[in-house]
Amino acid sequence: MVAQGKSDIISQTSDSSFMELLAEERARLVRLCAHLTGNPGAAEDLAQETLLEAWRNRHKFAVEDLDSATQRAKWLSAIARNVCLRWGRSHGRDLAHLTQYTFSAVDEGEQDRLDLDDLPSSDAYDLEIELERGELAHLLDRALALLPPTTRAVLIERYIHESPHAEIAEQLGLSEDALVQRLYRGKLALRRVMETELQAEAVAYGLVDPQQAGGQQRVEQETRIWCPMCNKRRLIKYYEPASGTTGFNCPGCWHIAGHSQPLIWEGVRSPRSILNRQLVALSEFYWSAINAGKTLCVMCGRPCEGRILHSQHMPNAFYYRYGNDGYHGVFLYCSHCGYEECNPLPHLTIDLPEAQQFWRQHGRVFWLPERDIDYAGQAALLSGFQSAGDRARLDVVYQRDTLKVLGIHETTC
User: In what residue span(s) does the RNA polymerase sigma-70 region domain sit (predicted)?
Assistant: First the structure.
C-alpha cells in the first residue's frame, strides 16, 4: 500500500467539501436556469450540467474563496448563464436576455457593442438583478419582433449570436461596408420602436429619455406588479418631470411609494427593482420617525419631527385623503422648509423589511385591516398581509399609542 501524501489528503478533503457546496446550490440553479431559458422542463438538466462544468473547472476556483457563498454563487451563476446560452443556440432559441448587448443608443460613430446589463457590479449574487435582466430581455424580444424580418435577423446574428461581420456579409451576399450600413439602420429602426410602440417601458428602463419622450407631461406605465393592498389591480409606475418624482400607485386604492431622489435606485431600471429600492429607503425614513421621534427631511435634509397620529388628531389637510375612521399613522413636519406628510399604517407595514420579504416570496398579497387587540397586557393593533395564493399570512403587532412594533409572526399553513 502506498501512503498518501499530505497534499493528496488535503486535495481529497477539498474536493469532498466542494461537492457538498455545489449540491447546496442546486435548487437555486434550477430556478435560475428556468428563469433564463423560460423552460422549467429543461432547468433540471441545465442545472446539473452547470454543476458538472463547475466540477470539471474546480481548479480555476480560488481555494480562499471556497467558504465564500457570495463568490461561489457569482461563479456558478456565470457558468449557468453560458450553459443556458449554449442550450438556446442548440435549440434554435434566440435568448436575447443572455446576450451582453443591446442597441439603446445609435449615434453615428458609436461602438457596435453596448452593454445590455447596464447595472452596478456587485460581489453578491443578486436575484433582483437576475430578474431585471429577464424583464429587459422581454422588452428587447418584443422590440425585435416589431422589426422587419430581414432587419431583425441581421441584428440577432451580429449582436446576439456574435457572428463576425465577414461571416454575416458572406451569408447575405453583401460587402462589409454595406453590412455596417444595414446594422446602423437596424439600430435606428429599433430605437424608433422604443420611442413609439414601447415608449412607456423604454422610459421606465432608462432606454429613452423621459423628457424627450414626454416633455413635461406625466409619464405612466402599467407594471406587472399586483397591488399589495387590494390585490385587484396592477401598479402604475409614473414619472413627474416637474418634481422629478418616480412613484407607484394602484389605480383602484392606494399610492404605494414615491421618491424624488433617483440615486436611491441608481443602476437598476425595472419597475420591481426600483420599487424595492424605494421601499427600503422609505422604511428607514418612516420608521426612524416612529422609533426616534425624528427623521431627516426628504426636501431639505434637516431633522424633522415625527409624531403618531390617530383619527381624531389628523390635520385638516389630510382629512380628505384618509378620513377619520380608524386611521393610525405617523405625521411628519419640517419646521425649516414646511414639508409635511401623513403616512398611514398600511404603508408603514409594507415598508417593514419583513413585509417586503413576505411580498417577494408570495408575489400576490393583500392588506389585512388593523384591529384592536390586547397583547401581553398592552393595548395593541394587529394587522399585516395575507397571501393570495395560499393560507400564509404575516401578522404585525403594534403598540397602539406609539405604533412601535411589538411582534411579527408569519404563518405558513
Answer: 24-93
For residue 104, give the DSSP letter.
S
- Integer Cα distance of 285 and 279 in angstroms: 10
Q: Which residue has the higher pLDDT, 91 or 188?
A: 188
CATH architecture of the domain 16-93 equals Orthogonal Bundle (1.10)
Q: For domain 101-116+126-202, give the CATH number.
A: 1.10.10.10
Cα(287)–Cα(293) distance, integer angstroms: 9
Domain extents in the chain: 16-93, 101-116+126-202, 348-411
Chain centroid to CA 113? 24
Write down the mean pLDDT value for the chain: 75
Q: Residue range 272-301: average pLDDT? A: 88
Helix, strand, or coil here: 56? helix
Query: CA 190, 194, 195, 196 torsion: positive or negative?
Result: positive
If you ran DSSP here, which 8-state letter would residue 371 be given?
E
Max distance between CA atoms of the chain, in angstroms, equals 90
Lowest mean pLDDT among 98-107, 175-184, 385-394: 98-107
Measuring CA to CA, how many Å separate 408 from each of 291, 349, 352, 354, 399? 16, 11, 10, 8, 12
* Among the ranges given (257-261, 370-374, 399-403), the one the predictor scored with the smallest mean pLDDT: 257-261
In the chain, the amino acid numbered 345 is: L
235-251 tens-digit pLDDT = 999 888 777 888 999 99
What pLDDT sits at residue 112?
Answer: 30
Count helices and strands in the chain by DSSP H and E runs? 14, 14
